[in-house]
Design goal:
This protein is an alpha/beta fold and about 230 residues long. About 50% of the residues lie in helices and about 10% in strands.
């Protein structure tokens, strides 16, 4: 299997960085692409393609080999053949999901694998490309996947920080915060918790300070991120 170079207009790393929504990491790298395919010639071709635009590349001959390797803690994606000897691409997708690893996946497929590709997309795959594919189509899919992973990592880190702050609240402060951010007035909260309004105001102020909320509207948004109204 070879890459299709027809109508090829390969961008360099500077051009990739100019694409709206794409950002460059502090080390100057755009991200990491993990390539899994039992065809060594295809792995090499994809490796050359990705490195030519400033991407870091790791190649694997099987899904098992990928699973046994340490995963980089930086924006990444997975480019994998849907059919592999041993553990298939679909099996790998399921295994990663069971382990809570949310890595964007781009599947490479043959024409006869379209039904399998639909199943992969329903399970959360970012894209699937039918062989032979154009370099530009692969670069577009990988760029989208890595930037999506970058955004996901930022949001996950922010949520972890919010959850950490929420843990510093006392049980009563949590109760007041939950009730206040669902729209209840201090008087209503006081009645629900058998407290004075002054005490409710104190707990509410303490919650805002510990959660680093700039104002009450900010506290409401934080509560929504934490799912306190669920």
């Amino acid at each position: 299997m070879t890459l299709d170079h027809r109508e090829l207009n390969r961008p360099n790393s500077a051009e990739i960085a100019d694409i709206p929504g794409v950002s460059i990491g502090p080390d100057g790298a755009i991200g990491v692409v993990n390539v899994i395919d039992d065809d060594a010639s295809l792995r090499n071709a994809l490796s050359n393609l990705f490195t030519s635009v400033g991407l870091s590349v790791r190649t694997f001959g099987s899904a098992r080999e990928f699973q046994s390797a340490a995963q980089p803690d930086e924006p990444s994606c997975l480019v994998v053949d849907i059919r592999l000897p041993g553990l298939s691409g679909l099996d790998l997708q399921s295994a990663l999901s069971e382990r809570g690893i949310d890595l964007p996946i781009i599947f490479m497929t043959a024409h006869g694998d379209v039904p399998m590709s639909v199943r992969a997309m329903k399970a959360g795959a970012v894209d699937f490309l039918t062989k032979p594919f154009r370099d530009q189509d692969m670069l577009d899919a990988v760029t989208k996947a890595i930037e999506g992973d970058r955004i996901h990592r930022i949001e996950s880190k922010d949520l972890e920080e919010l959850e950490g702050r929420f843990e510093t609240l006392s049980p009563r402060e949590r109760e007041v915060m939950k009730l206040a951010t669902t729209g209840k007035m201090n008087k209503q909260i006081a009645g629900d918790l058998n407290l004075s309004e002054v005490t409710v105001k104190i707990h509410r102020g303490a919650a805002m300070k510990k959660m680093a909320a700039r104002n009450f509207a900010d506290l409401v948004r934080i509560a929504e991120r934490l799912g306190l109204g669920d």
